Amino acid sequence: MARTVGSTIFISRWLQAPLYLGLIAAQGVYVWRFMQELWHLVSDVGHLSENEVMLLVLGLVDVVMIANLLIMVIIGGYETFVSRINLRNHPDQPEWLSHVNANVLKVKLAMAIVGISSIHLLQTFINAGNTSSNTMLWQTVIHLTFVVSAVALAAIDRFLSPKTSDRHGAEPHHVQVDGDRADGDRASV
Question: How far is it, in rounded angstroms, from Cα 45 to Cα 68?
Fold first, then answer.
């Protein structure tokens, strides 16, 4: 009985697979939105002010950052919570995927959210003439909350992560096979 319950719970992780497929569809929507905004920028370039161009470009950057966030969630979440993605030495494998875990993913997502919030805040300040002071204040407070949260997550992850010297008992010696060690003594390897 316990084995059946355990197996059922373990297999239930596959219920998340359709969620990741849904996020891929959402990414397609963001690609469509990006192309619409890019077309608007290119086709109206002669009629746009510098601020309007800047706001459109920031909108494009925002869409790209959200798409990057989606990729981190899709690939990192699937790899962490559903199943390994077998990419053995694939040349396009993202660097961060080789050491992804739930804590790393949380910190990366928090930093991505701070980046997206920064773009939105910059857009608000560029368009300050059309935005109330109260809205700007609250967007700033919310952004600072994201920043503090991201820093706190990173600090907690760093505090809880094992240190290199803790795992090996001492600081590693940097030795070159055919030369001098980092401390100046000859290596006898």
Answer: 27
H/E run at residue 72: none
3-state secondary structure of 186: strand
**Token pair 């003439």 is at which residue?**
129
Contact between 17 and 78 (Cβ < 8 Å) = yes
Let me know: does 126 contact 54? Beta carbons within 8 Å.
Answer: yes
pLDDT digits (tens, 9 = 90+) for 98-131: 667 777 778 888 888 999 999 989 988 888 888 8
* C-alpha distance from residue 112 to each of 51, 62, 66, 129 (Å): 25, 11, 8, 28
Q: How far apart are the first and last CA of the chain?
A: 57
C-beta atoms surrounding 76 within 10 Å: 22
